[in-house]
Predict the 3D structure of the following.
Amino acid sequence: MHQLHHGDALAVLPTLDASSVDTIITDPPYNSGGRTASERRNQTAKDKYVSGGSGVEKALEDFTGDNRDQRGFLAWLSLTLGECLRVARPGAHLLVFSDWRQAPVTSDALQVAGWTWQGTLVWHKPIARPRRGGFKANAEYILWGTNGKFDGSREVYLPGVFSASQPRGRQRRHITQKPVDGLLDELVEICPSGGTVLDPFAGSGTTGEAALRSDRSFVGIELSDHYHRIARDRLDEVSSTP
Ligand SMILES: C[S@@+](CC[C@H](N)C(=O)[O-])C[C@H]1O[C@@H](n2cnc3c(N)ncnc32)[C@H](O)[C@@H]1O
């Protein structure tokens, strides 16, 4: 079962029932990159996150909401994660993607919003360009929080490091698409079987695909017309595949 809303997360979240979801897994615009305020304002998400790649990848649609400065990002993400907390049942888990630059401010936002920070998971990306004279940037991070106390009564033991490559070529439908195999399919295991997963920044519907494939329900929100259409078609296809 899935629902996909088209609109701004901060407008749609207040319309969802309180305590109605078991897990939130989300990949918000990172608002990362750009050494100066001017670079941040003037670079699009695509300028920042798509380098190289095939013609298919270069033709992918841009998205908005990635030009906030650090104070704006903290305020906006705190408000959004606060709305998520209202929608989450007590004990629910929150997983928020970030990169190395934005991990500190993302953990601040998570706690300002009232979530209890439980740790940081690592997404290792096996395919990354070497960096002459320095270290490869071949990891992103997933900040983990709970709505109140951590409940350790479920018999699940999940890893803290995930190694998986971003979809490439024709498999790539979004400029910052996350992989299902080896990443989202593992992360959704934090949601009790048959529970509901929410992603307020659904993009191409990756979290939704992982949730539906593992017999969880899914609620998504996506602002862009283009990506809302892609996610809708993708989720309809997954739902109709036995
Ligand atoms: C980092 S991408 C998510 C990509 C997704 N994880 C995937 O695998 O396809 C963030 C998405 O949030 C959407 N977005 C940006 N601002 C938004 C807002 N205020 N409300 C809802 N969605 C928003 C963008 O259009 C973009 O598709």
In short: DSSP finds nine helices and eight strands in the chain. The domain at 2-240 is CATH 3.40.50.150 (Rossmann fold). Residues 8-9, 27, 29, 63-65, 174, 176-178, 201, 203-204, 206, 221-224, 227 surround S-adenosylmethionine (CB under 6 Å).
